[in-house]
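Researcher: Next sequence.
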Amino acid sequence: MILEIEHSRHFDLLFHALAYLQVDNASNLYCEEYIAQMGITKRRFGYDIQPNIKLLQAYYNANFERLALINFLPYFSEGFEDMKGLLAHCQHFTQGDLQHFVTPFIKILDAESAFYFDYWDALHRDNENKRHAAERGLQSELAKYSCIFEFYNKSAMTFLSYSLTRNGRGFNANPSCFDALVPFPKDDESVKSSFFALLHEYTHQFTDVLLNANISMTDNTHNIAEKAAILADYYLIKVISPCDLPTYFEWVAQNGGNQSGGGNERDFLSSYSVDDKLKSDLQKLAENIIDN
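Model: Next structure:
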């Protein structure tokens, strides 16, 4: 299998901005710890992103089903100017979206970039040794699951983000490749967490279709899709690397908001149950992938 790992400062600028935006659903990246840390780093920078982002918060939440696309458009861009162009001219957005959110959001990105790009360059340079170690660790972890990529005849691409505060973002920019963005692991212990996030985002790209539905945050379909991907990874890990199951349960508990369920298989299966047909489909799919 081929795994490419990339880093992108204009991707990270967007997710840096989203760390200041409170969202009323599971896509929320708002993080007070990150904001406090950046407040110290930015203390000599005149522009304050917080009040400007807050002005956009209500409109974003009220129109989330359309505006959520901003989380994924960057992956189809070659640079910052290209990303801004995609945001400004995306036909998916209404005129109201452009007026009340997209245009002021682009202005925020422009203003914040004066600080963030220099910060990102220094961070990327200073983390060179950690980057190489993290990339080796992810390569090693993902190699155990080469059967997935052989089954679908796809390669793997991931972006490691310095600013993504939790979970990950999967996307389909290339039909011959699984694509995802996950948090940059800050230390050796975080590599496993970033790997589980990466596997989860890849898995969505072949389990979401089993729901045969338009997955949305406004109904239960997103919740079911999350459970399906989490269960599929459980079935894969249980056979491929069973020693990782306790750590996986802990990761799921921490990222799913259920802090008390980590490390316990019975509680995990109780918390992430799905209907019998979907469960059977997921089990059969995992078996086919492993036996391929």
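Model: Residues 9-126 form one domain. The chain has two domains: 9-126, 130-291.
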